[in-house]
Amino acid sequence: MIIAANFKTNHTRAATKAYLAKVTAYIAEAEISDEVMVFPPATALCRSEGDVTVGAQNAWPTDNGAYTGEIGTEQLDEFGIHTILIGHSERRHILGESQEVVAEKFAYFKALGFRIVYCIGEPLEVRDAGSETLMAYLAEQLEGIDLGYGNLVIAYEPVWAIGTGRVPSENEIELIHGALAKLTKAPLLYGGSVKVGNVAPILALKHVDGALVGSGALDPDDFCKMIATAKQINKQEV
Ligand SMILES: O=C(CO)COP(=O)(O)O
């Protein structure tokens, strides 16, 4: 399984350092073999520590240049970062990133062999329009994306579930992940209001290979509890 924490615009460099120290110590002590990723803000980027992969929440498809406010691979290389989130709904909907830009980023980081956690998800009105509209919307978000890319992870994060405390039913998640599994062999993460209290039934669902967690993972102790749950579920599958 893959358990990932997206800090978004939270935590400082010092807080990230302390967070990683706690999580890496836990992983070693609990003999965790699941993949654990942490995406701090750009100002707190650092080298991967122990068995925790540190990834970037965003970067512009360039090595360097004139892109005010952005970072490129020159800044990622400083910390050996080779993992990136692309297509997160907050970048699509709040920051206005088009599918064209998202696909351009995908192509750029794919060419560099990055591990790409590619995010898709529908707003509430699309979900309410029924499963056909929903799947067509998700298909548009996959336009220009190589679903056969070996270093790809897909995160399904319904916009209406992000930061709201609302989660789709287990049936809904299974349906969408099942449809995605027909399109790609990439691991499929669920994201959107995942917490310590609901992570177990979500991770146990068919075609759910992990979770991408925002606010519920800001506390390292909570994140460690979720990692422990993933281990527990793996055991039950064996
Ligand atoms: O957007 C998310 C992770 O990328 C999910 O955020 P929350 O877990 O805060 O709902």
Automatic annotation (TrEMBL):
Q: In which pathway does it act?
A: Carbohydrate biosynthesis; gluconeogenesis; Carbohydrate degradation; glycolysis; D-glyceraldehyde 3-phosphate from glycerone phosphate: step 1/1
Pfam families on file? TIM
- Its name, as the record gives it, is Triosephosphate isomerase
Active-site feature positions: 88, 157
Name the catalysed reactions: D-glyceraldehyde 3-phosphate = dihydroxyacetone phosphate
Family according to the record: Belongs to the triosephosphate isomerase family.
Principal subcellular localization: cytoplasm
- State where substrate binds: 6-8, 163, 193
Q: Where is the signal peptide?
A: none
For this protein, what is the EC number? 5.3.1.1
Task: Describe its assembly.
Answer: Homodimer.
Summarizing the function annotation, the protein's role is:
Involved in the gluconeogenesis. Catalyzes stereospecifically the conversion of dihydroxyacetone phosphate (DHAP) to D-glyceraldehyde-3-phosphate (G3P).
Compartments, record wording: Cytoplasm
Q: Which GO terms describe its molecular function?
A: triose-phosphate isomerase activity
Keywords, ordered alphabetically? Cytoplasm, Gluconeogenesis, Glycolysis, Isomerase
Keyword DNA-binding set for record:
no
